Each structure stands twice: as structure tokens, then as C-alpha cells.
Automatic annotation (TrEMBL):
Organism: Parathermosynechococcus lividus PCC 6715
EC number: 4.1.1.23
Protein family membership: Belongs to the OMP decarboxylase family. Type 1 subfamily.
PANTHER family: OROTIDINE 5'-PHOSPHATE DECARBOXYLASE
Protein name, as recorded: Orotidine 5'-phosphate decarboxylase
Annotated active site: D67, K69, D72
GO CC annotation: cytosol
Primary gene name: pyrF
Keywords for the protein's UniProt record, in alphabetical order: Decarboxylase, Lyase, Pyrimidine biosynthesis
Enzyme class: lyase
Length: 244
């Protein structure tokens, strides 16, 4: 369990997914949540705004997770990573199913940049049944995630994206510095909407998540700033209870 000294320290480890369709809605969301330090820009917003949203976030001195989930042949992912490198974002995603050569090529393109490449192991919307019946993979979810994470580790990536349910085993295998970035977070602990593998924020940190990614539980709350503050407070309280 990370040692959080203040709600601000928790806030630094919670990445809020800026899943809105337009630049003006993104700017309004930033204004409504000034205490958020780390934002994720995904496919929806980046396709709508291009790099303009990154400039807005930089002007506000926010950390940036550019979640473009690259997935292509090695030459193409490397070229995309080279094109993204000048943006100077903190995190960028690539699917580990790209394979070792593609992961290595993209990682090489980002060498000597501040951008940490994260390998998406198995989307948190996929459960054991879907993995077996649709993707025709007979591995258990934790085993599959471990195998995909091993590719990311071997390729020298900064870490992975996985469900918090798999974070503990990854931390045990590869240590603290190989990041576990965990979406699928639900304050109720129950998977809702399209998420299938969920944990509560406090359980996710306790399980070894380095960062949480949270979207709708904050953005669609009646009071998003209060929802964010409540989540930070829950993680802080949990830590204090665990270490009185
Ligand atoms: O790479 C991601 O960020 C990601 C990977 C994954 O396996 N699952 C997942 O939900 N995400 C992203 O995390 C965010 C989760 O949003 P909420 O389900 O609204 O909290 C979305 O922006 C997803 O695109």
C-alpha cells in the first residue's frame, strides 16, 4: 500500500479520463476539477481536437496520459511513436498484443524522451468468459495478463495497463518501478457499464496499483469535484486504518 500523506498525494496518483467529445467540454471539465493533476486524453477527444488539447493541459501544468493504444506492425507503431514524441506527454499506451518486436520498436522511438510507454495487457472490459469464448484463449485472466506484461517488461516499457485485480502479481514479479496503471475503478467495487474487472479505489491501491484511471464515476457524478475529493479521502482513510 502506498503511503499517502495528504489528499493531494493521493490526487497525484489518480488519473482522470477526460472522456468528452469537444475541446470546449474538455476546458469546462478542467475548470470544474482544478484539483486534478493528471489527465488522460483518449481516442475520442484526441480525434476531435488533435494536439490542441495537449497544449491546453500543458498551459495548465497538468500531467498527461495520451491513451492512443497503438496496435500495428513494428514499422508503423515506431513511426507513430516518433510522431508523438515531440508532444512530451508523460504516458502513452500500446497494446501488448502488438508483439515483442512492435513493443521494442515503439520503445526505441521514445528513448531519450520523457514519455513512458505502457502496454495494455487485457482490456478491463474483458472477463474470463469473453477471453475463453470470443478470443479463444484458454488461459486464466491473471495468467494471460502476466504473459502480456512479460512482453512489456522484456521490451523495456515503463509499465502496463491492467485491472487492479492483477496488480499484486505484477508488482511481486517485476517490482515497484514497473508501473501498474489500473482503470476499471468503481467506488462501489461492482463492475458497471462496460467494465468487467473492477475494484474500489482503496482496494486498487492496496492491491499494488501505481496509478488509478477513473472516468465516469467522477465525470458523471452530480458534483464531480466532490466525487474526486471523496475518492481521495477514502484512499487516505483506508491507508490510515491499515497503518494506525
Ligand atoms: O488504457 C486505458 O486507459 C484503458 C484500458 C482498459 O483496459 N480499460 C479502460 O477502461 N481504459 C480506459 O480507462 C477509462 C475508464 O473510464 P471509466 O470506465 O469511465 O472509469 C476509459 O477512458 C478507458 O478508455
Amino acid at each position: 500500500m502506498p503511503v499517502f500523506e495528504s489528499p493531494t498525494a493521493v490526487a497525484a496518483k489518480i488519473i482522470v479520463a477526460l472522456d468528452v467529445p469537444t475541446l470546449s467540454e474538455a476546458i469546462a471539465t478542467l475548470k470544474a476539477l482544478p484539483q486534478v493533476q493528471f489527465w488522460k486524453v483518449g481516442l475520442e477527444l484526441f480525434c476531435a481536437t488533435g494536439p490542441a488539447i495537449l497544449e491546453v493541459l500543458k498551459a495548465e501544468e497538468k500531467r498527461i496520459f495520451l491513451d492512443l493504444k497503438l496496435h500495428d506492425i513494428p514499422n508503423t507503431v515506431a513511426a507513430a511513436a516518433r510522431a508523438i514524441a515531440p508532444f512530451g506527454v508523460d504516458f502513452l499506451t500500446i497494446h501488448t498484443a502488438t508483439g515483442l518486436a512492435g513493443l521494442q520498436a515503439a520503445q526505441a522511438a521514445l528513448a531519450h524522451t520523457p514519455t513512458q510507454l505502457l502496454g495494455v495487457t487485457l482490456l478491463t472490459s474483458i472477463d474470463a468468459v469473453t477471453l475463453r469464448t470470443q478470443l479463444q484463449c484458454d488461459l486464466e485472466v491473471p495468467t494471460y495478463v502476466k504473459r502480456m506484461a512479460s512482453l512489456a517488461y522484456e521490451a523495456g516499457l515503463g509499465g502496463i495497463v491492467c485491472s487492479a485485480q492483477e496488480a499484486a502479481q505484477i508488482k511481486t514479479l517485476w517490482g515497484e518501478s514497473f508501473l501498474r496503471v489500473c482503470p476499471g475503478i468503481r467506488p462501489t467495487g461492482t463492475a458497471t457499464a462496460d467494465q468487467a474487472r473492477s475494484l474500489t479505489p482503496e482496494a486498487a491501491f492496496a492491491a499494488g496499483a501505481s496509478y488509478l484511471v477513473i472516468g465516469r464515476p467522477i465525470l458523471t457524478a452530480p458534483d464531480p469535484a466532490q466525487a474526486f475529493a471523496d475518492i481521495c479521502q477514502r484512499c487516505l482513510t483506508e491507508k490510515r486504518d491499515a497503518n494506525p
